[in-house]
Design a protein that fits this description.
This protein has 145 residues and is of the alpha+beta class. Helix content is 31%, strand content 31%. It has four helices and six strands; from the N terminus they run E-E-E-E-H-H-E-E-H-H. A hairpin with a 2-residue loop joins strand 2 and strand 3. Helix 2 packs across helix 3. The protein starts with a strand and ends in a 5-residue tail after the last helix.
């Protein structure tokens, strides 16, 4: 994560951190945090939800096509690898949020809220590394030479 720009996000819909890299006018990376409303991210149904997601902005850009389209793309490898590991990310090819893993925290007792959330986030990071997602984003956003 040391090669990624870290940005804190805090608004009515999402609280967390985005880690990104830039290529021209496009940005790709991942985020960890809490979805606070149903319309904050795809697939959020019972907020608050702890989430990990991969993104490529803007949708339809050359970077989006590189990282999302194709059977062996970085995002497809991430979703397949996470499924095998038992920590599945949902694939969303039509927008800038391209893969999401989430868990509702609505019914988690406040005494163990922090433990459940931190465990979820630590387990969500493993597929990002194992699938080579971080390396593929770094390669796609690095100038040749």
């Amino acid at each position: 994560m040391e090669d990624f720009r870290r940005q804190r996000i805090s608004n009515r819909r999402f609280v967390g951190f985005r880690f990104s890299r830039v290529r021209r006018a496009a940005r790709a990376g991942f985020a960890f945090g809490f979805a606070l409303s149903e319309d904050s991210l795809p697939a959020i149904r019972e907020p608050p939800e702890v989430v990990a997601y991969a993104f490529v902005d803007p949708a339809g850009s050359a970077l989006h096509r590189t990282l999302v389209a194709g059977r062996a793309s970085a995002v497809r490898r991430l979703t397949a690898s996470s499924e095998r590991m038992g920590f599945p990310f949902e694939f969303h090819s039509d927008g800038s949020i391209v893969a999401v893993r989430h868990r509702s925290m609505r019914r988690v007792p406040k005494e163990i809220f922090v433990l459940v959330a931190s465990d979820f986030l630590m387990l969500s990071y493993n597929p990002l590394r194992a699938a080579g997602f971080l390396e593929r984003v770094t390669k796609a956003t690095t100038k040749p030479g």
